[in-house]
Amino acid sequence: MSYRIQIAETQQVFFVERGETLLQAAGRASVALPHDCQLGGCGTCRIRLLDGQVRYDEEPFGLAPDEAAAGYALACQAQPLGDLVISTAREDEACAEPARHRAVVRGVRPLSADVLHVELELPDAGALDYRPGQYLKLVAGDGPARSFSMASVPSAGRVDLHVRRIPGGAFTDGVLPRLKAGDGIDVELPLGNFFYRARDYRPLLMVATGTGLAPIKAILESLMDDPDCPPVSLYWGMRQPDDLYLHADIPAWGERLYDFQYVPVLSRAGESWQGRRGYVHDAVLADLGDLSEHAIYLCGSPNMIHDARAAFIARGASPDYLYADSFTFQHY
């Protein structure tokens, strides 16, 4: 049995077979639906059900109960229970089409015991047409492509990556240590829908865990010295003080951003730590009241994004101004 799916805005129709998700069926029918992680964590594939219902094998991380109750669904996980009429309406800014380019390694250096700074140069000056916050894929040899957020603004043909080492990882323990200045590597970019929406013009709440700081760093760099920069609050969650690999540099960002607040939060800090403790989203809830006026950017672990989305929406945050990039674990 198959179900008929109609997109209200375009009147496009495709059919979903039993056991398929909406996204899988749309891809098979060459119908473009926005998506990123395909694991139900980032929320990029969020649609609205105008008629009909869906089910999930497991409740997705990237959809809060209030959103589901309001008729929203995640196309990458949703399976229809019958014919559907869906809305994909989301006014968004156009991004460059992704393309493959040859990059040159300019340097690899440690930022901490577990995080490496990788600097790449793209000789093709037009290749770095991306929105701060987006990611690229590194293609090394015959192995699978690896996704990394770009941690810098497009400038001078160079791009920075923050790469967390995975012990025993085929890429981070195998390929990456062998890379040296002058080596070539293929990249595909730009990718993703996690980027700054200037049209929102709301106070910015940026919440990151781990190397989820990387795309947020790129976004904030793009706002430095901008007279239209809104107020910015950055909450960064890590386990221990040594994990905060840019901790000494971040306060200086406030000199070039409007009304900047930086709050590091550690979940496993020792007695010497004088700062905030616990989960990063709980620190936000303790500091801020109503979140209905904020534009919120979440980047990091799926668990953080799931918990933060639900908690922030309960505090008034609008799903229409909440953007997420979920860093799903891979054996890098």
Automatic annotation (TrEMBL):
Cofactor(s) needed by this chain: [2Fe-2S] cluster
Biological processes, Gene Ontology terms: bioluminescence
EC number, as in UniProt: 1.17.1.-
rRNA-binding in keyword set: no
GO MF terms held by the record: 2 iron, 2 sulfur cluster binding; oxidoreductase activity
Domain of life from the UniProt record: Bacteria
Domain 2Fe-2S ferredoxin-type: start-end pairs: 3-92
UniProt keyword list: Luminescence, Oxidoreductase
Pfam families, sorted: FAD_binding_6, Fer2, NAD_binding_1
FAD-binding FR-type domain span: 98-197
PANTHER family in UniProt: NAD(P)H-FLAVIN REDUCTASE, NADH OXIDOREDUCTASE HCR
Protein family membership: Belongs to the Fre/LuxG FAD/NAD(P) flavoprotein oxidoreductase family.
Protein name: CDP-6-deoxy-L-threo-D-glycero-4-hexulose-3-dehydrase reductase
Organism of provenance: Cupriavidus yeoncheonensis
